Amino acid sequence: MESALYGPEGFYRRPEGPAGHFRTSVHASPLFASAVARLLMATAEALDTDEIALVDVGAGRGELLTGVLAAVPDGLAVRPYAVERAARPPGLDGRVEWTDRPPTGVRGLLFANEWLDNVPVDVAETGPDGTVRYVLVGPDGTERPGAPVDGADAAWLARWWPMAEPGARAEIGRSRDEAWAAAVATLDRGLAVAVDYAHVRGDRPLFGTLTGFRDGREVRPVPDGSCDITAHVALDACAAAVAVDGSDDTGDTDDDAGVADIGGDAAAFVLSQREALHRLGVSGQRPPLSLAKTDPASYVGALASAGQAAELTARGGLGDFGWLMTPVRTALRDWAP
């Protein structure tokens, strides 16, 4: 998965970028970037500053940063960082600093839209004898059972994704926990947000979620660089990988390498994208028909906006994405449940 996505011939190195194969919330509507801009302003208010960093992790070709910079009002100075392994695209706003890792010690908003689902994971399957083994995959997608899962991976499965039934599969999310904890730890103060396909411990899919995408279609996840390879994220495990005020909520006493000590006034929590965007003023409510008579052009524009908002917040679609909200030494009033 690592080489297929990020190697020299990997999917995310391709010149057309992710937008050439699938559409995220960023591509679905400029309303998404406007909502992130409002979240950035709320973070700046919480930090009592008019200068703030915006770190876009998994930035693609800079589409979200471009939209946010256009939506931020005058008076708020934004230092934007695009964190991406691919090369900087031509024509990107010169204010954007392009880097392959998050900057450290910044104050502001770290936003990771559909990044964690592409952090490589190992897949495990329960065999007929009840033994949980790694699934080994060749470049052509051919699979065979590997060694039994043990150590920290086995402990992660026992806590977050128990596998009892023969044939059951799971994606071992320990690498995502560690990646998220490391990203959060780069913030000195502010808010870290991960937005992604998600599931929780009480509702894990029996056969896992690993899949591929190419040219707008779901395909077999063959790790040859020709397609995206993605798996839904156990956001509840990622949330628990972040410690508040030095506490350790990982439940893993022998391996704390992925724990970030963030301090602050609130622990991490998860909202649906539907709820998060509603709080940020994105609504699918249709404009009144009376507006069509008094101002037809405005009615058509408002109707189109309502349609885009409905897509971003739809049940069974983008609205079901999880937003993992992680305040870092910052009190975000009216947000924590």
In terms of topology, how is this protein built?
Elements: H1 2-6, H2 25-28, H3 30-47, E1 51-57, H4 63-71, E2 77-83, E3 97-99, E4 106-113, E5 122-126, E6 132-137, E7 143-148, H5 151-160, E8 169-172, H6 174-185, E9 187-196, E10 198-199, E11 211-214, E12 217-219, E13 228-230, E14 233-234, H7 235-240, E15 242-243, E16 260-261, E17 269-272, H8 273-279, H9 290-294, H10 296-312, E18 322-328
Written description of the protein model:
- The chain is of the alpha/beta class.
- It contains ten helices and 18 strands.
- The protein has helices spanning about 1-5, 25-30, 30-45, 65-70, 150-160, 175-185, 235-240, 275-280, 290-295, 295-310, and strands at about 50-55, 75-85, 95-100, 105-115, 120-125, 130-135, 145-150, 170, 185-195, 200, 210-215, 215-220, 230, 235, 240-245, 260, 270, 320-330.
- A hairpin with a 2-residue loop joins strand 11 (about 210-215) and strand 12.
- Helix 3 crosses helix 4.
- It is globular and about 70 Å long.
- The model is unreliable at about 250-255 (pLDDT under 50).
Note the beta-strand portion: 25-35%
Give helix % range.
25-40%
Which class do the helix and strand fractions yield? alpha/beta
Mean pLDDT: 87
Provide the low-confidence segments as ranges: 250-257
Question: Which properties best describe this structure?
Answer:
alpha/beta, 10 helices, 28% helix, globular, 18 strands, 337 residues, 7-stranded mixed beta sheet, 4-stranded antiparallel beta sheet
